[in-house]
């Protein structure tokens, strides 16, 4: 895969860099906050090689890439002015409370997951080494590795403070200082002493802040308002000293007196509530959660559960939610494996086997989107597999004891504890049940390319004698000469390009105007015989926002070859720094055999350039 090419195409299809408020990535998805989701072309994104699907969760626009998402993300940053801290202002879209909450949770927790996952895996492997007698708990090696594994969890408020500050728009280093203050050893000792504590006469509630989630999130949310207010009223010459000083002096005490204890109480009740649910309705709760977790993953809402998982382990030493995610993934792997066993299409059979292995490793999107959802019935079978394992986990009380890694076989150490053996058995049950259910339910197999059945089912879309004329006077060029990968690689379709000599574009076919872009730089026409023609005047001229263009038609107008469509000022467009080369694309090229009538040289308007048959 050419990651740079893919990243450029993705950026263009989400509406260009100017439409991106921020972008991050998780294990399998690029997660965009766009100024306007409507500008993203979902259908074309989903047809791209390297893209498995798209999803909108809350207001977040997600592009599902799979295992290669870090490389695509890196290329995206390299090929644009975006950065990991990119924020170009708030989106103009109004969000509801639930969407805003999910956006905050996803934005805060996604960046810190690698640290949590790495530390969690070290803790799990260390527990495994002790269990099998490979390492003594009294050894210095064990002490050092324990510190490495516990560090990210003990100082979790500090990681969250930095991430939350970036999300809320406050200074991340001041936020880290706030977290450092509430974790200070002397303060921790004072809060744990059992003595009555006060600050300038106000009572301070004793609470433990290490390994907590909610108190620091509330504190940094409050900080974002306090810091901005102080910054607004402070003279520029004093900002460097006054703003951080007052922010720390105000926020830390208020956190200790009100916000921190409130967060600690909320965290306690949250953990108690989850435990109560699984203690009193364990079987039903686990069946429902494991059986529907794939649906939660589809929406990306599983990241909203991360703080609950971390909080459960911090408060109770175990968690029931992550095991359900493991079972759902095993069900997806099993269903995809059944497709591998039963499919007669060699190419698809290979895909099913590969994605089944990937799902076993904890990355389910390839199996879910590429195989199971594509065939529909195997996806239902995967849900059955997850529910079957959930029933077993509900009976045996399986829990995870750390948060780390993907929900796949490499992360099995998270189960090390009293229910470890049951955990392994449950994973086997989900995989086997998913396989059996998909095999028995069956599916409509993907037909091999070129098979008779495929040929019989393929709709006959071709037409005879469609001729595409030049809409502009100038020099004709091959699309490969256009300095834009979307056009030069013929991603949108085949066609030609014109370097214009005159600033007028006319209709290249008889048909109806189906699209007039607000920025006036592009026109879409559907010919009377079904050809979909796009005339794109210049490269990146969308950024001119209609300046130097004058549209002479409107959507729904009927036109004939030679009818004026758009006038434009070539010299002013060039002076603004834009290339005026104009691609003319047949966007439904796949329905035709395309023959070039003229590939180079000077052309006049209405001169035939492409023949479609």
From TrEMBL:
Transmembrane annotation, as ranges: 141-161, 173-191, 197-220, 240-263, 283-308, 320-341, 353-372, 379-403, 415-441
Residue intervals of the PTS EIIC type-1 domain: 103-459
Keywords: Cell membrane, Kinase, Membrane, Phosphotransferase system, Sugar transport, Transferase, Transmembrane, Transmembrane helix, Transport
Pfam families the record matches: PTS_EIIA_1 (PF00358), PTS_EIIB (PF00367), PTS_EIIC (PF02378)
Domain PTS EIIA type-1: residue ranges: 484-588
Active site, per annotation: 26
Locations listed in the record: Cell membrane
Residue ranges of domain PTS EIIB type-1 in the record: 4-86
InterPro entries: Dup_hybrid_motif, Glu_permease_IIB, PTrfase_EIIB_Cys, PTS_EIIA_1_perm, PTS_EIIC, PTS_EIIC_1, PTS_IIABC_b_glu, PTS_IIB_1
Membrane topology: Multi-pass membrane protein
Top-rank lineage group of the source organism: Bacteria
PANTHER family in the record: PHOSPHOTRANSFERASE SYSTEM TRANSPORT PROTEIN, PTS SYSTEM ARBUTIN-, CELLOBIOSE-, AND SALICIN-SPECIFIC EIIBC COMPONENT-RELATED
Name listed for the protein in its UniProt record: BglP
Annotated source species: Bacillus atrophaeus (strain 1942)
């Amino acid at each position: 895969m050419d990651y740079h090419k893919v990243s450029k195409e993705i950026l263009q299809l989400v509406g260009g860099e100017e439409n991106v408020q921020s972008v991050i990535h998780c294990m399998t998805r690029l997660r965009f906050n766009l100024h306007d989701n409507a500008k993203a072309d979902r259908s074309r994104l989903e047809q791209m090689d390297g893209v498995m699907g798209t999803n909108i969760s809350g207001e977040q626009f997600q592009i599902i890439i799979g295992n290669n998402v870090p490389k695509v993300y890196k290329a995206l940053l390299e090929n644009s002015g975006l950065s990991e801290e990119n924020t170009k202002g708030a989106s103009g879209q109004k969000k509801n409370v639930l969407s805003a909450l999910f956006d905050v949770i996803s934005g805060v927790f996604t960046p810190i997951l690698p640290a949590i996952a790495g530390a969690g895996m070290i803790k799990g492997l260390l527990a495994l080494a002790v269990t099998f007698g490979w390492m003594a708990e009294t050894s210095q090696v064990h002490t050092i590795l324990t510190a490495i594994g516990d560090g990210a969890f003990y100082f979790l408020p500090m990681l969250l403070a930095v991430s939350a500050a970036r999300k809320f728009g406050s200074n991340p280093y001041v936020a880290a200082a706030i977290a450092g203050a509430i974790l200070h050893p002397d303060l921790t000792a004072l809060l744990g002493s059992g003595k009555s504590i006060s600050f300038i006469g106000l009572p301070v509630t004793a609470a433990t802040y290490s390994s907590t989630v909610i108190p620091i999130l509330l504190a940094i949310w409050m900080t974002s308002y306090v810091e901005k207010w102080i910054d607004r009223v402070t003279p520029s010459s004093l900002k460097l000293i006054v703003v951080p000083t007052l922010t720390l002096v105000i926020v830390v005490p208020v956190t200790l007196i009100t916000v921190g204890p409130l967060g600690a109480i909320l965290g306690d009740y949250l953990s108690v509530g989850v435990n109560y649910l699984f203690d009193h309705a364990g079987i039903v709760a686990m069946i429902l959660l494991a059986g529907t977790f794939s649906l939660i993953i589809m929406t990306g809402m599983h990241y909203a559960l991360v703080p609950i998982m971390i909080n459960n382990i911090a408060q109770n030493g175990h968690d029931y939610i992550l095991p359900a995610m493991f079972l759902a993934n095993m069900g997806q792997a099993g269903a995809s494996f059944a497709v591998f066993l039963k499919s007669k299409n060699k190419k698809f059979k290979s895909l099913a086997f590969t994605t089944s292995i990937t799902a076993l490793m904890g990355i389910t999107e390839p199996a879910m989107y590429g195989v199971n959802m594509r065939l529909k019935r195997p996806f239902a079978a995967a849900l059955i597999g997850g529910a079957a394992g959930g029933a077993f986990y509900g009976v045996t009380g399986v829990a995870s004891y750390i948060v780390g890694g993907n929900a796949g076989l490499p992360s099995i150490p998270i189960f090390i504890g009293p229910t470890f053996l049951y955990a392994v058995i449950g994973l086997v049950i989900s995989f086997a049940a998913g396989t059996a259910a998909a095999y028995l339910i069956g599916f409509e197999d993907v037909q091999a390319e070129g098979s008779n059945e495929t040929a019989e089912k393929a709709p006959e879309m071709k037409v005879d004698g469609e001729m595409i004329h030049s809409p502009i006077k100038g020099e004709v060029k091959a699309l490969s000469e256009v300095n834009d990968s979307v056009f030069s690689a013929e991603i949108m379709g085949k066609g030609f390009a014109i370097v214009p000599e005159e600033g007028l574009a006319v209709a290249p076919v008889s048909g109806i105007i189906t699209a007039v872009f607000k920025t006036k730089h592009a026109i879409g026409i559907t010919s009377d015989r079904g050809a979909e023609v796009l005339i794109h005047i210049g490269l990146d001229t969308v950024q001119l926002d209609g300046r130097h263009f004058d549209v002479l038609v409107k959507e729904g107008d009927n036109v004939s070859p030679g009818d004026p469509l758009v006038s434009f000022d070539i010299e002013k467009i060039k002076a603004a720094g834009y290339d005026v080369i104009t691609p003319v694309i047949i966007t439904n090229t796949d329905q035709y055999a395309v023959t070039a009538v003229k590939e180079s040289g000077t052309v006049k308007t209405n001169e035939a350039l492409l023949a479609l048959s």
